[in-house]
Design goal:
Keywords: Carbohydrate metabolism, Cellulose degradation, Glycosidase, Hydrolase, Polysaccharide degradation, Signal. The chain is mostly helical. It is 46% helix and 5% strand. The radius of gyration is 21 Å and the shape is globular.
């Protein structure tokens, strides 16, 4: 664990830290990219398409929304359970879209599969926002779901539908949904113009609802969303985040003025060393900084300063006390599912390094200057750690490398498939599979688990869900990272 030291750490020492990873054979980043995207097919809910590649999955939850007279089938299960949580699903869709926007040219033949992954998310988000002034933000009662260990295909738990509206606001989840729709509209702008326009128009209306009826969705939906995806950070960042993506997608002056007018009110510089489904501040600053670095928006210079401070706060040796490094070199932040921080922060490191490179700029960090290549090297270190360059010589991506987690905390993966076991497996009947020491019968190819602890130790065991559970928002930013490194070794 690296302890904070003076910001005057010589750059040469920092380079030694970055380069001290255990060396292995060159990774096949394109194979890892293919598998990383394939994972999303294992998380699909609803009626599966004919080109579904993970064949051990079957249709599930096809009647979602029937209790409220809406078709809310489709979308993604967020992790190893069978709930559709709209907040992390929207963030996943935003990051998949950003990955394609910045790194799609590096994806080669996998670009088509990445586009399908985005569209599977946006098709659902369009359903969830089809009623003006309403966003359906969750399908499934989390307590009855978490009380069972059953395949999504057998699901008989409550499929309760939860929504936000004018009387029960949720600016956080609505703002993130607007961001996802806006970002995806850029992805499909030249590929499917009519679909792109639909996405952008819906993003505009959802953002207007989020801004006009302000509040955190965990205020009115606390019993359903807490402690699972409770809004701890507040809704203000999602409003800025949504406005930033709408400005990027539409180039409308109103969003530029909104950002400028609300920068302080909505606390753009808060909690800069974190980025994920609940905290968008670092992402906002990096995204908007591109405009500044390209010389097109000097009035947003404070966002560039915030982005620089974010970068300095996570560099090894000078990192903020909230950002640590394991002895093996993995970024570590306290809390569950650490790999979500690793992939999201690494994505920002890489993205910002590219923006800096094009502007021929560095990041001033006290007594030294961090170059774009240094940021890329740190991001690559994290990716290589995930793929097997770590003390355990274990890939934390299922199906990649010679050794990877075999007992992941994931219902569909850990229970026999419908093809292997056609009879229904009841709610409690699945417990014996959960407790079994045997490997999961279905390989969820591409799933990246929560990962090792701060000492690089990893229990390959289902009950240790913080370490062994995969999530869509771990994989989404990794798509962009792997795309880049598959083309830039």
């Amino acid at each position: 664990m690296a302890s904070p030291v003076s910001s005057f750490l010589p750059a040469a020492i920092l380079y030694l830290i970055l380069l001290s990873a255990p060396a292995t054979a060159q990774h096949d980043y394109h194979d890892a990219l293919r598998k990383c995207i394939l994972f999303f097919e294992g998380q699909r809910s609803g009626r599966l398409p004919p080109d579904q590649r993970l064949r051990w999955r079957r249709d599930s939850a096809i009647h979602d929304g029937a209790t409220v007279g809406r078709d809310l089938s489709g979308g993604y299960y967020d992790a190893g359970d069978n709930i559709k949580f709209g907040f992390p699903m929207a963030f996943t869709t935003t990051l998949l879209s950003w990955s394609i926007i910045d790194f799609g040219r590096n994806m080669g033949p996998e670009l088509g599969n990445a586009l399908k992954a985005v569209k599977w998310g946006t098709d659902y988000l369009l359903k969830a926002t089809a009623v003006p002034g309403v966003v359906f933000v969750q399908v499934g009662d989390p307590y009855s779901d978490h009380n069972c260990w059953e395949r999504p295909e057998d699901m008989d738990t409550l499929r309760t539908v939860y929504k936000i509206d004018r009387s029960h606001p949720g600016s956080d989840v609505a703002g993130e949904t607007a961001a996802a729709l806006a970002a995806a509209s850029i992805v499909f702008r030249s590929r499917d113009p009519s679909y792109s326009r639909l996405l952008l128009n819906r993003a505009v209306s959802v953002f207007e609802f989020a801004d006009r009826h302000r509040g955190a969705y965990s205020g009115s939906l606390r019993k359903a969303v807490c402690p699972f995806y409770c809004d701890v950070n507040g809704y203000q960042d999602e409003l800025l985040w949504g406005a930033a993506w709408l400005h990027k997608a539409s180039r409308r002056r109103e969003y530029r003025e909104y950002i400028f007018r609300n920068e302080v009110v909505l606390r753009a510089g808060d909690t800069i060393n974190e980025f994920g489904w609940d905290n968008k501040h670092a992402g906002i600053n990096v995204l908007i900084s591109k405009e500044v670095l390209m010389g097109r928006a000097e009035y947003f210079s404070s966002f560039r300063q915030n982005a620089d401070e974010f970068i300095c706060s996570i560099l090894p040796g000078i990192s903020h006390p909230q950002v640590q490094y394991s002895p093996g070199g993995l970024i570590f932040k306290a809390g569950g599912s650490n790999m979500q921080h690793v992939t999201s922060l690494s994505f920002l490191l890489l993205t910002y390094s590219n923006y800096l490179s094009h502007a021929n700029r560095n990041v001033p960090c006290g007594g030294f200057s961090a170059s774009p290549s240094m940021l890329r090297q740190l991001a690559k270190r994290q990716v290589d750690y995930i793929l097997g360059d770590n003390p355990l010589r274990m890939s934390y991506m299922v199906g990649y490398g010679a050794r990877y987690p075999l007992r992941i905390h994931h219902r569909a993966s850990s229970l026999p498939s419908v093809q292997a076991h056609p009879a229904r497996i009841g709610c409690k009947a699945g417990s014996r599979y959960f407790l079994s020491p045997n490997p999961n019968p279905n390989v969820l190819v591409g799933a990246v688990v929560g990962g090792p602890n701060v000492t690089d130790a990893f229990p390959d065991s289902r009950p240790f869900f913080q370490e062994s559970e995969p999530t869509t928002y771990i994989n989404a930013p990794l798509v962009g990272l792997l795309a880049y490194f598959s083309a830039h070794r």
